[in-house]
């Protein structure tokens, strides 16, 4: 791969024939048609949050450097932005009047700047590395560039490395904010559509089901034009969740792919299942409400999933005091289980630090984490009971 440093291009040069697609949020062309600003392996323009894009203009006005920009020179002598798309799109939008900034305390677009400031922006020189080489080596190298501003996340990098018809087709479905299904999916999947979180989830689910890594799956399908398998598996998971459980906030972001694999072929009484979920969602002693779904799917065999909260210190103290006073009166141990024994512990009075709180009726059998269901046991007996 050859890399050549260019310092002759100015903001004016790059903005020559700048085209920005408002609808898709993409800067498309610059450098008088010679530069493709958003090639396939680039992500959407995500600087238009009124902060990062304005910061780019601020830097130009203060004559700060914008940092290194990388172009890839294609075989037909055209250029593609490898790194710097966000910065170029920001100043391109500004110069073409699509972005306003605060200047001397008032909102203004490019035309509202004093002449000398306009010239300053337009004449700003950029530092551009132009690379020429095989697609593979450029993509590999691109993966290692430390992006200025927002770093690429794992899925964005995978999209770059495995760019091709499969990624294009998958993005049209899973990274498309105009897809009407996103609203429905957002009940189960957490993240940002534009940052590829939904696509990543879809790929993780199918890859896990096939027992391969996401990288492996993407490289196998890279040149496929169809995403039928990916889409149909994803829809099966979503349909299964929607058909099994009533919607709830706690469902978002769970490991639905894994749960689908484990439980989708089992049959449940759905009315009973959902009644139980609702009951558990109201139980304040449950620490991990999100795990309620897995807990009921697994036939309530793993109470550990729910991280049931332990008793409050104040409850323990109160129960200890009550229990100890009664035990002293009767001349027996304040551990009710020791009191039943025939050994020397039968009359032993434990200190509070030697005891633990226990659910009289186990939580898994419906016992609440409340003072009425709390007893103090010596550590030995509590451990023995817990292991049963
Ligand atoms: Zn005991």
TrEMBL record:
Pfam families: GmrSD_N, HNH. It comes from the Bacteria. Residues 353-388 form the HNH domain. InterPro entries: GmrSD_N, HNH, HNH_nuc. Residues 36-162 form the GmrSD restriction endonucleases N-terminal domain. GO terms for molecular function: endonuclease activity; nucleic acid binding; zinc ion binding. This is HNH endonuclease. It comes from Bacteroides faecalis.
